[in-house]
Amino acid sequence: MRSISYPPEPTDLPKLHSAAFTFPAIDNHAHALLRIDNRDSMPFEGLISEAAGDALTKDSVHTLACYRATHQLAELLGLPAGSSWDDVKVKRSELAYLDLCKLCFEPVNIQCILIDDGLGARDIVYDIPWHDHFTRSQSWRVVRIEAVAEEVLEILFKPFDSAPADNLDLVKLLALFVNSLTGKLTTSATDTQVVAYKSVVCYRTGLAVSATSYNNGGDPELLDSFKRVYETYRLHGKLRVEDKALNDYVVCTALDIGGRFGKPVQFHTGLGDNDIDLVLSSPAYLQSIIKTYPDTTFILLHSSYPYTREAGYLTSVYSNVYLDFGEIFPFVSGQGQRSIIRQILELAPTNKILWSTDGHFWPESYYLGTIQARQALYEVLSENVRSQELTEAEAVTIVENALFYNANRAYKLGLKPVQR
């Protein structure tokens, strides 16, 4: 197993150093890896940026995040100092794929992964159990609710794909949608492999989610929204839930079921690609719906960057809100990562912060997402200990909670940390 160049163990904080860099971790939000035959089907620059087009392939390689990732991957791959991003790409392509996966997973001590399998491209990624090759506990499924809604709608709409909406009994179709969506999400809630739901409403219509209801007569606003989604599908062959009333209803349905069955609901917040309305990606917009569903656990993903302080505030004042500090590794520079961790710790209770890689497609995303998170936690908490704001024992507890115990409790996994 190749070694990682972490900061040397200090004489004054050996227990914190050990906890930060070796304690088992639960990756509470990630995605599947590409199949071996598709290992090169996506631009590798997606490892370090959510951009697209030239902003991804030409610009992202000039970020501090990419320079740092290049150095760390070059070391992992045994390349000489000063190797370039292109050198890394060539070297990784020369390795057998399973060897590359093992190389990335073996040093980082991820005990289990919670995988959102609704990212798309399902035909080119591995199924969830395949990832158990690289962990000591099983992987778990996170159900993406918009994907479920779209599957239901496609089944309902397909027989009528050439009929104008005015020729259909939309009230009946909407009732069928409501019943089927509720049934599928309820079935998921009773599936022992499912530990949470995930919403990407942030990408679709923003986080200003309103509480919605349904009655058998069809709520006019929801019915109009349903009609627009159908017409878009009929005219353009495009089925995507991106009309606000319908999106809000899907979210509220999941929040209700999640609360009744004890399944947290993860929300993409903040950091994303250019499909997001950045202003509406602030978790502050969720405040009303958080109040409406006090029995449902909300997980704010991706540090809500650049709205981290807003997320920390919500986590501090609502007992049902948790904050994930993921995706910023490796998308944000090292200094930026430490600044974000500091902002999280300004206000958020440390028993409600969760770590994730947001690993996806490439095994290197899991590697970088872990080693950079461990280093950021260590560096920020060691500052607090040395300034006598924390004891070393308290800092160790924060690390162990953030990496393992908080997620274990929030998702009811029932795991015990397994040391290497």
Automatic annotation (TrEMBL):
SUPFAM superfamilies: Metallo-dependent hydrolases (SSF51556). Residues 252-386 form the Amidohydrolase-related domain. Gene3D superfamilies: Metal-dependent hydrolases. This is Protein fluG. InterPro entries: Amidohydro-rel, Metal_Hydrolase. The gene is fluG_1. GO terms for molecular function: hydrolase activity.
